[in-house]
Structure formats: C-alpha cells, structure tokens
Amino acid sequence: MQELTNNALMLKVKSGDLDKLGLLYERHKKRLFGFFYNMNSDAALSEDLVQNVFMRILKYKHTYTGEGSFTAWMFRTARNVNYDYYRKNKSEKNISEVSEVAYKLEDSATIEQEIQDKQNIRVLNRAMQLLAPEKREVLVLSKLKEMQFSEVAQILGCTEGAAKVKAYRALKELRSIYLQLERR
Amino acid sequence: MKQENFEIWMIDYLSDELEGKDILNFEKHLEENKDHRKQFEALKETWSQLNDLTIPEASTTMDEKFYVMLHDKMEAQNHKKESGFAWLKSVAESFKKPQLAFAMLILGVGIGTGYLLNGDSKNDSTGGTVNAVVDSDTETEEVRGQLVLTLLEQSSANKRLQGVNEAAKLNDANERVIKALFATLNNDPNVNVRLVAVESLAKYVDTPEVRMGLVKSIEFQNSPLVQIALADLMVALQEKTSIESMKQLLEQPDIDNTVKQKLEESINHII
User: What's the pLDDT at B105?
Assistant: First the structure.
C-alpha cells in the first residue's frame, strides 16, 4: 500500500492542511510515547509531552524545510520538549532511589525465577533512570523500532560514528549501574 | 584496532546494521580477540535486556486531548481565512476601475495558460501519486472519524456540535462513528446537538441499519423540534416502517399539539 510520506504530509501541514497532522500523530504517537516513557517512567507526563510535541510542530511548522528525515526533525522537537520540561520543573530523578531498589531486591531474594525476571526488568528500569539523561536518551533512541543510527545521529546532531560511540558508552555505564544495584 | 572503532563495530552488530559477510567478520574477530569478546558478552546481555523494558499503552485521554487541540487549531485557522476573505472582498470592491479589471483579466489568462502548458508536461509523472493520494484520503477519513468520536465525548455542547458537523464531512462513516452518532441522537442532553445529529445521519440513509435506527429513535425523542425533524425526514424517505413509531408517539399523553399535527400529516403523506 502506497502512502504519502511523512515528509509530504508535514509539507501539507506547513501549507495549511492542518488535518494531515492527525495522520502524523497516528503514525508516530506510540513511538513518541515510548520515547518519553523510557525517559521519565511516568505515563501521564509522557502523554502530556507527546501533546506538547505536536503543539510545537504546529507552532514551528514554517521552519520545516522537507530536507532530511521528518522522524529526525520530530524527535529533535521531542528532545527539546523533554529538556524544556525538566529545565522548568527541575525534577530529574536522583540517586537516592537506589536504596529503594536495594530494599526491593532483598525482599525478592528467595522467590521464583519468573518473579526474579520481572525484578531484573525493574532493576534495569531503575538503572536507566539513574543514567544521565543524555546517555539514557541515546539508548532509548537506538532501541526505538525502525530507527536507524543515521537518524539517531541526525537527532543528536552528530556523526553516525559518534552516535554509535555514545550508545556504546551509555550501554557500558548502564551495565555498570545495573550490576551495582544487583549487588546491593 | 582502535577501541573506538571496535565500539562502533559492536553497536553495528548489536543493532543489526551489519549484513552477510560483515557479521561473520565481526564474529571471527571476537573469536580471535579475548578482550573484545569479554566486552561484547557483557554488553550483549544488557542490550538485549533493553528489549524487555515494557511500555504501557497510552490512555485514550492522549488521543482526546490531541484531537481537541487539533480541532481548535483548525477552527482558528478557518476564522483567520474568513477574515482574510473579508479583506480581499473589500480590496476587490475598491478596484472597480475598468482598466484595472482588464489588466487583472490578462494576468489571469496568462497564469492559466502557463499552468495548462506546464501541466501537460507533468502528466506522465503524476500516475504514481494517484494511489498515494487515494490511500492518504482513506487515512484522513480514519483520522477524521477519530476526531468525530473524540469531540462527541466532550462535556461541552459546542464541542459535541462540532463533532456532529465533522461527521457530516465524512465520505463514508464507519460503524463506530454511526453508533456514536446514534448515541448522541438518542441521549445527548442538548437539543441542537441532537438536531444536527439527525442531519448527519440523514447522509447515511442508504444503509438499512441507519434507516432502522432513525425510525426507532422517533420514540425516544422528547423534544418537539427533534420529533418534527425526524418526521420530516421520514416523509422525505417515504419510510413506511416509521408509521408505527409515529403512531406510538401520538399515543403519548403529553405530546405537543404542533408535533401531533405534524405526525398525523406525515403519516398521511407516507401512506
């Protein structure tokens, strides 16, 4: 099935055909929600931030040139929305939450494998939240479905090689935090 | 090999950006280099664990907020356009000199000719975009349907009214939209919203279910205005099955006199 590309749709939005934004929303809402949720672990907040992305897309539609990938442009907007939110609210989660995880881990020391797996995911989730936002971001973007590293690089404003190195180092640090949490 | 190059290579491998021979080369490198293999084994696990991070489904509130926002922006844009047209009209009225009209005519003919000539050369390449436009229209209809559903659920009568109006713009409403329109027609507390719902549903009377739903709805209505609108529609459709519903409505003790008269006339017209 042939569909209008994201770029073509966004150019239509730019020229005043606003209801085409609905199509872009339907195509990308899940990925954007996933991006924000992985960044902040807060579903209600993530929903608001998705909304803010589309409001900003409308506000700045005149700046869209149609060059490069729409997805990269949209995620750059999403990054800015995320930064602006945390700059205003200064509520980035802090390291003190490590003790809470450690307590939960002690509780689950003797339970079954299935529960242990779930716990591992929780620990990984916590480790993600303890990772510096810019490192968490590169991992979240790298793991987004259908996102190539060339696009990740466009979003981050660096070369593809640099994006991969950032991903590697973020992954290494994530593992280190994860193991620290697991040992407690 | 420089560490940085290995880092890039490993991420290429983990994110499935390597193909065929390159995959084998990477795996061979790991067999030959113990230190890199150790690094790889450690990070591979964490990389694949990232796939297990669960993301909940976004709630329907997200869609609602988006579509209400989009609708408001579209409305605001339409108002701007309308005021723009008013300005154009006033400008046009001030240009009533025949010389200027003639100059505009010449300019218009020139632009039109240029467009047609240019259009011919583009005809060959437009075939491929026709399907894309058709598919995009289908997608637009789906989005508009979603907009209708969202607006019909709003607490503001004005928004619900806009929702019913949007429904009238659909080329072909789906089952969910039709159901939502009937729920509005039969339950909405606002008479104006119900009246517009009659008009929107009238667009789909070719569907037997819609006709039947409209007939049934006659009994549910307590507003004389909606009762009259439905009776008029039944006459226009010459819907014989509606006679029974109208007769039942006539038996209600508190029926409005004007409605009573209207229903009797409508029944006679249909018979």
Answer: 59
Q: In Å, how far is A90's CA from the nearest CA of chain B?
A: 24
Residue A99 CB partners (closer than 8 Å, separation 6+): none
Considering only CB atoms, A18 lies closest to which of B47, B77, B146, namely: B77
C-beta atoms of B53 and A169 within 8 A: no
pLDDT of residue B127: 47
Which residues, other chains included, contact A98 with Cβ-Cβ below 8 Å and sequence gap of 6+? A126, A130, A180, A181, A184
Residue ranges, comma separated, of all CATH 1.10.10.10 domains in chain A are 97-183
| Chain B touched by A179 (CB under 8 Å) | no
Q: Which residue of B has its CA nearest to A13?
A: B74
- Say if the Cβ atoms of A120 and B49 lie within 8 Å: yes
Whole-angstrom distance, CA of residue B138 vs CA of residue B132? 10
Nearest-CA neighbor of B189 among B221, B144, B229?
Answer: B221
Q: Which one of 1.20.1540.10, 3.40.50.300, 1.10.10.10, 1.10.443.10 gives the CATH number of domain A97-183?
A: 1.10.10.10
Chain B touched by A158 (CB under 8 Å): no
Given a contact cutoff of 8 angstroms between Cβ atoms, the answer to whether B113 and B29 are in contact is: no
Q: Which residues of A touch B45 (CB under 8 A)?
A: 175
Report the gap between the CA of B174 and the closest CA in chain A (Å): 17
Residue ranges per domain, chain B? Answer: 3-52, 56-72+133-190, 205-271
Nearest-CA distance B262 → chain A (Å): 41
pLDDT lower than 50: segments of chain A? 1-2, 93-106, 108
Q: Within chain B, where are the H helices?
A: 3-14, 20-32, 34-49, 60-94, 98-152, 157-168, 175-187, 191-202, 208-220, 224-237, 242-250, 257-270
pLDDT at res. B230:
92
- What per-residue confidence (pLDDT) applies to B10? 95
Nearest CA distance, B134 vs chain A (angstrom): 9
B3: nearest CA in chain A?
A165
Sequential pLDDT tens for chain B (271 residues): 788 899 999 999 999 999 889 999 999 999 999 999 999 999 999 999 898 888 889 998 899 889 989 988 888 887 777 666 666 665 555 555 555 555 555 666 666 666 665 544 444 444 444 555 556 667 777 888 888 888 888 888 888 988 888 888 787 778 888 999 999 999 999 999 999 999 999 988 888 889 989 998 988 888 889 999 999 999 998 888 888 888 888 888 888 888 888 888 999 888 7
**Domain A6-89, second-level architecture:** Orthogonal Bundle (1.10)
Residue with tokens 């499935």: B16
Give the Cα separation of A77 and A8 in Å (integer): 18
Which residue spans of chain A are classified as CATH 1.10.1740.10? Answer: 6-89
